[in-house]
Amino acid sequence: MIDGKAITIANDSTISSMIASATRRVVVLAPAVSRVIAESIVAKWNDLGGDAVSVVLDVDPEVYRLGYGEFDALALLEATAAKAGTTLNRQPGIRIGLIIVDDETLVYSPTPLLIEAGPKRPETPNAVRLGAPPANVERELGQGPNGVREQQIGLDKADKSAIQAVDNQLKQNPPQKFDVSRSVRVFNAAFEFVDLELLGTFIDRKTVSIPKHLSGIKDSKTREQLRTSYTILPPGHKLSGEHLQKDRKLIDKKFLRTIAGYGTVVLRSDKRAFEAEVKQLRQDVEKFAEKIRDELQLAMDKQRESLVKAMLPTVKRTPPHDWIKSDGRKPDADTVKQFLDDDLRKAFGTAESLIKEMKVKLIFKGVTFELLSDEKFREAAREALPELTQLHDEYDAAKAADEADKPEQQPQNTTD
């Protein structure tokens, strides 16, 4: 008996005590078990014999990274099962716990220590004691009248090669070591920082830099200081994409808040609706880009041709040095126009290149515990988010053991 209650707690201590009380049989079904529980199972294998104990685990490295158990417990159980003339079995993906000791049944929720510490107090139950196991449960576990012929769970053997494969993967990507005797406060903020940008849609604000060698200025120093740009479309052109910027501002107004001095945030309760509207905005940008592709190229060509016409007289009088032959002869008018058009075409680029720049950029950033511990930030957040009764929730979670927390090893004495 664990504590005499039907709704109770299951942890290393209570499960080990339950297994230790077995006089006829022990059945364990779980993702994984701790070393403490494994040692209790081993004792019963040695005491009751191989046929009296059945263990089914999920032999997968991920269960150890999540903190459902310890790998050395898995290796210990496999070795003991082989010694007892039986097998350790596996059930991929199992995430419930079931213990049968004689005619007592315990169903529990295994604790992933990566997320939270295990239960310790009666007011935080995670298990139900059912008394004798239901007949169909016994049959599916191979414990019914017909034994393993009716077994449906844990049919695969977890042999040494499977255990070694898990060991190899855990060495490559080891789990954290969790000290469940301590806990830390894990928080869940009611909001997230967010960056939302609409890029490349203000086409009429796009400019190109006029190549410096086309300025007509002979003095190289002055030419290098010159910064001349030209809009690729006339101001207010119908292809500007201004309506998309308006839609983005409406999304801002509906969902986003600014915490003065810290940034823009979205409430987690609004996040799904916010993402849906951003998704629609992204689709609208793609449709707009596709719609204007050909018309934009024609408009850019027209602007370029106008610029060629305006610059041509000056460039004819003072062609760039690179266009003049080694004997000092200047290019004829047609060649000047050709060279000028080529250089401006490169400067303008293509409509396709501009369309590729049209995109919606969305980045979420979590709120750190350090920020939530800062009184100035909390004051600013409360002012920006007055509807929130609290800025975050906190709960207990297991803490990864620090290397510094390990007991210091004493140096060994050596003799010559």
Defining key terms:
416 residues, alpha+beta, Endonuclease, Chain A, 2 domains, eight-stranded mixed sheet, four-stranded antiparallel sheet, 16 strands, 39% helix, disordered C terminus
Summarize the structure.
It is built from 13 helices and 16 strands. It is an alpha+beta fold and 416 residues long. Helix 1 (12-20) packs parallel to helix 2, helix 4 runs antiparallel to helix 6 (160-172) and helix 8 runs antiparallel to helix 9 (271-317).
Major beta sheet summary: 8 strands, mixed
The gross shape turns out to be: elongated
Structural class: alpha+beta
Q: Encode the helix/strand succession as letters.
A: EHEHEHHEEEEHEHEEEHEHEEHHHEHHE
Strand order of the largest sheet: 1-7-6-5-2-3-4-8
Question: How would the blueprint of this fold be written?
Answer:
Layout: E1 7-8, H1 12-20, E2 26-30, H2 35-48, E3 53-57, H3 61-65, H4 71-83, E4 89-90, E5 97-101, E6 104-108, E7 127-131, H5 135-140, E8 156-157, H6 160-172, E9 178-189, E10 191-199, E11 207-209, H7 220-225, E12 229-231, H8 242-255, E13 256-259, E14 263-267, H9 271-317, H10 333-348, H11 351-356, E15 359-365, H12 369-372, H13 375-384, E16 392-400
Parallel strand pairs: 2-3, 3-4
Antiparallel strand pairs: 1-7, 2-5, 4-8, 5-6, 6-7, 9-16, 10-14, 10-15, 11-12, 13-14
Helix pairs in contact: 1-2, 2-4, 4-6, 8-9, 9-10
